[in-house]
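Input C-alpha cells:
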C-alpha cells in the first residue's frame, strides 16, 4: 500500500498514488480533439445499446423486503446502478439529465433514456458518488433525489464535495477520505483509492477527491470502481480488505467504456482488458461492466466495449458469467452470502 495514508493530500489539491500524468496537457487535449474531428470520431455504433423494460414490480417488492431483500442490481445507464442488498437501496453516480454537461443545450447526450425513470425508482437510502465530473455527478439528479425523499436520502461522497452539496441545499451528506468508512444500518461504505482526477470548471482541478467504493453488508460485499485508470490501487484494495472479505467481493461494478485513444486515455480510463485485470486483482466473484453504451465521450463507438470485453475475457481465461454486461433497465439477482461471513 502507499507508504503514507495522507500522501494524496498536497498544498494545491489532491493527487493520485502512482502517477501525476493526469489528465494530460492542454496540447494533448487539443491533439486528441483535432484528430477526432478530422477522422469524424467516434464512428456510429453498428448496433444500439441493448435496452429492456424494467421489472418495476420486482424492483419495488425487493425494495420493501427489508431483511429478506435479495441482492440485485439494475442498470440505469452509464455508471448509474441501483444496488439492492443488505436491506438498502443504493444508487451509484446517478445521472438522469439528457446531457452530461454544465448546460442542457450542448454537451454529451444520452443515447437512450435512463433504464428506470426517476419517478419509478424505489425510495433510495444511499447515493454514493465517485467524483464530480458531469457524467458522474448530475446536479438535477441529486436535487431530485433529495427532494423526492424530503432529505432522507444520504449522499456519501469523496472529501471536498460536501460543500458543493451544501451549495445545492443538500445537507444529508457524509464525505470521506481514502480508506475512511461510514456505516448505514449495519452496512459499511468505504472510499478506496483509484487513479483519476476531478473538476467541474476551469479553476477547480484536483480540489475535491475521487475514489471507488467498497461496501460490506451482512449478506453481500460489493465494489464500484467509478472512473479510473489502471494502477496498483486495486491490488492495494484487495490487500486492505483481505481479512475483511477473504473470498473477495461478491460483485464488482467496473468501468469498461470511454477508453480510446489509449495514448490520451490510458492513465484516466481503463479499457476492457484492464477491467478484466481489475476483476482479477480484486478477486471478485463476479463483475459487471458499467460506464459504456450511454454517452459518446471518447473515440470508440458505443458498441465497442462488449466486443473488447469478450476478447479480454477469452484472453485472460475469465468466464462470461464471471464478468457480464446488462441491458439498460435490466435487473440481475445475485446469490447472498451467509450472514455469519460479514
Amino acid at each position: 500500500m502507499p507508504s503514507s495514508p495522507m500522501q494524496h493530500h498536497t498544498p494545491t489539491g489532491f493527487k493520485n498514488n502512482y502517477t501525476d500524468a493526469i489528465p494530460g496537457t492542454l496540447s494533448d487535449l487539443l491533439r486528441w480533439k483535432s484528430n477526432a474531428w478530422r477522422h469524424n470520431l467516434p464512428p456510429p455504433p453498428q448496433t444500439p445499446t441493448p435496452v429492456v423494460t424494467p421489472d418495476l414490480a420486482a424492483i419495488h417488492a425487493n425494495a420493501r423486503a427489508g431483511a429478506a431483500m435479495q441482492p440485485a442490481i439494475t442498470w440505469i445507464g452509464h455508471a448509474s446502478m441501483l444496488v439492492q442488498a443488505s436491506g438498502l437501496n443504493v444508487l451509484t453516480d446517478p445521472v438522469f439529465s439528457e446531457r452530461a454537461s454544465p448546460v442542457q443545450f450542448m454537451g454529451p447526450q444520452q443515447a437512450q433514456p435512463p433504464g428506470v425513470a426517476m419517478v419509478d425508482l424505489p425510495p433510495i437510502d444511499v447515493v454514493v458518488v465517485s467524483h464530480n465530473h458531469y457524467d458522474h455527478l448530475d446536479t438535477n439528479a441529486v436535487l431530485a433525489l433529495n427532494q423526492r425523499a424530503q432529505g432522507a436520502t444520504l449522499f456519501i461522497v469523496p472529501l471536498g464535495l460536501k460543500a458543493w452539496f451544501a451549495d445545492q441545499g443538500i445537507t444529508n451528506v457524509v464525505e470521506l477520505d481514502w480508506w475512511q468508512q461510514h456505516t448505514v444500518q449495519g452496512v459499511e461504505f468505504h472510499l478506496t483509492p483509484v487513479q483519476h482526477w476531478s473538476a467541474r470548471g476551469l479553476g477547480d482541478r484536483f480540489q475535491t477527491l475521487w475514489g471507488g467504493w467498497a461496501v460490506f453488508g451482512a449478506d453481500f460485499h460489493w465494489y464500484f470502481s467509478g472512473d479510473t485508470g489502471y494502477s496498483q490501487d486495486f491490488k492495494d484494495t484487495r490487500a486492505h480488505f483481505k481479512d475483511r472479505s477473504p473470498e473477495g467481493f461478491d460483485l464488482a461494478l467496473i468501468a469498461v467504456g470511454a477508453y480510446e485513444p489509449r495514448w490520451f486515455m490510458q492513465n484516466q480510463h481503463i479499457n476492457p482488458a484492464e477491467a478484466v485485470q481489475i476483476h482479477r486483482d480484486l478477486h471478485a466473484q463476479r463483475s459487471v461492466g458499467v460506464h459504456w453504451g450511454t454517452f459518446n465521450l471518447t473515440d470508440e463507438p458505443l458498441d465497442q466495449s462488449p466486443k473488447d470485453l469478450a476478447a479480454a475475457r477469452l484472453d485472460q481465461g475469465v468466464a462470461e458469467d464471471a464478468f457480464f454486461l446488462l441491458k439498460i433497465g435490466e435487473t440481475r439477482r445475485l446469490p447472498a452470502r451467509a450472514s455469519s461471513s460479514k
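The chain has eight helices and 16 strands. The radius of gyration is 19 Å.
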